[in-house]
Design goal:
The protein contains 15 helices and no strands. The chain is an all-alpha fold. Helix 1 packs antiparallel against helix 6, helix 5 runs parallel beside helix 12 and helix 11 crosses helix 15.
C-alpha cells in the first residue's frame, strides 16, 4: 500500500507536465509566456512559498530539538557537492550544464515531492525529522546551488564582460528564507490576511514550474528526452551517490538515531531533482533543455526508485 501511495504522489506531477506540453502544442502560450513564468516563480511565488513553509512547519523549540540531525544532512550534502565537482571536472561537462548537474547531485525536490511522500510513508510523526532535511536543502539550494547555476552561463563572452553579479548572492528565494527565520526567531506575528495572501501566491510554484517544464519539452520536442552521458551522470548522482553517502554517514555515526529519523533522511536523499532547475537555468542563461531533461527523467524514474527504496528500508 505504501508503494502504491508513493506512486500516486508522483502521477499528478507527470500529468501537470503533460498539461503544459499539450497546451503549448495547441498554441495557448505566446513566445514570452515561459520567460514570464520563470520570473514570476523565482521572484514572487518561491519566496512567498518558502516564507510560509518555514513558519508553518517550524517552531523555535522544534528547531532546537532536531538540530543534531543537521550534522548528517549537511554532511551528506557537502560530500555530494565535492563528488559533483570531481565528476564535472573529470568528465569535462560543458559550462552551461555544470551548475544543473551539481544541483542534481546535492539538492532534492523536498517540499513538493519529499514532504507528501514522507507523510504517506511514515505519518505526521516524521515531519520534525523531515524539517531537518528541508532546512539543509533550502539553505544548500538558495545559498549555493542557485548561485552556481547563475554563474554557469553558456554565453562565455557575456559572462566575462559583465563580471560577477553580486545581487545573485541573494536570490529572492533565499531572501524569503532569511526573512522567515527572523520572524521565527523573534516570534513576530504575521497577520492572517498576509499569511493567506502568501499562501495563495506560494501555491502556484509547483503547478507553474511543472507547466514550464512541459512548455520547454514542447519547444525542444519529445525526441530530445534522452539518456545521454551528462543526464546519466546527473541521475547516478541523484539516485545512487546521494542515498549511498547518506547511508554511510548514518551507518557509521548515526546508529543511535530513531528508526523513523533514519528512514526519513534516506528517503529525502533519494527524492527527484528540483522542479525549478529549468527556471534557474533559464534565469542564468544555461542549458534549459538539459535541465528540463534531467528533471523530467528523474521524476519518471522515481516511480521505479521509490518501491526499491521502500523495500530496502523495510
Amino acid at each position: 500500500m505504501s508503494i502504491l501511495t508513493s506512486i500516486e504522489n508522483i502521477l499528478p506531477i507527470i500529468f501537470i507536465i503533460a498539461l503544459g506540453f499539450y497546451l503549448n502544442e495547441k498554441g495557448w502560450f505566446g513566445p514570452d509566456f515561459g520567460g514570464n513564468v520563470s520570473k514570476l516563480v523565482m521572484n514572487i511565488a518561491l519566496p512567498a512559498s518558502i516564507f510560509v513553509s518555514v513558519l508553518k512547519y517550524l517552531t523555535l523549540d522544534k528547531l532546537i530539538a532536531v538540530a543534531p540531525g543537521l550534522v548528517y544532512t549537511f554532511g551528506s550534502v557537502i560530500l555530494a557537492y565535492i563528488a559533483a565537482f570531481i565528476v564535472v571536472k573529470l568528465f569535462k561537462v560543458r559550462p552551461e550544464r555544470r551548475g544543473t548537474m551539481i544541483n542534481m547531485f546535492a539538492n532534492a525536490n523536498t517540499i513538493f515531492i519529499g514532504l507528501p511522500l514522507n507523510i504517506a510513508l511514515f505519518g505526521d510523526a516524521s515531519i520534525s525529522y523531515f524539517l531537518v532535511y528541508y532546512i539543509t536543502n533550502t539553505v544548500s539550494t538558495w545559498a549555493f546551488g542557485a548561485l552556481l547555476i547563475a554563474q554557469d552561463s553558456k554565453d562565455a563572452t557575456r559572462k566575462s564582460s559583465t563580471g560577477f553579479n553580486w545581487r545573485k548572492l541573494l536570490p529572492a528565494p533565499l531572501v524569503g528564507f532569511l526573512i522567515s527565520l527572523i520572524f521565527l526567531l523573534l516570534n513576530i506575528p504575521v497577520p492572517a490576511f498576509a499569511t493567506n495572501t502568501l499562501i495563495y501566491v506560494g501555491n502556484i510554484v509547483t503547478p507553474m514550474s511543472l507547466i514550464y517544464i512541459g512548455i520547454v519539452l514542447s519547444k525542444a520536442g519529445l525526441s530530445n528526452i534522452n539518456f545521454d552521458r551528462d543526464t546519466i551522470l546527473a541521475l547516478l548522482g541523484r539516485y545512487i551517490l546521494s542515498p549511498v553517502v547518506m547511508f554511510l554517514l548514518l551507518t557509521l555515526w548515526g546508529s543511535h538515531l530513531p528508526a523513523i529519523e533514519y528512514k526519513t533522511f534516506m528517503v529525502q536523499a533519494a527524492v527527484p531533482g528540483l522542479a525549478v532547475l529549468p527556471i534557474l537555468a533559464n534565469e542564468g542563461n544555461g542549458d534549459v533543455e538539459y535541465a528540463t531533461n534531467v528533471v523530467t527523467t528523474s521524476t519518471l524514474l522515481f516511480v521505479i526508485v521509490i518501491p526499491i527504496l521502500v523495500t530496502l528500508l523495510g
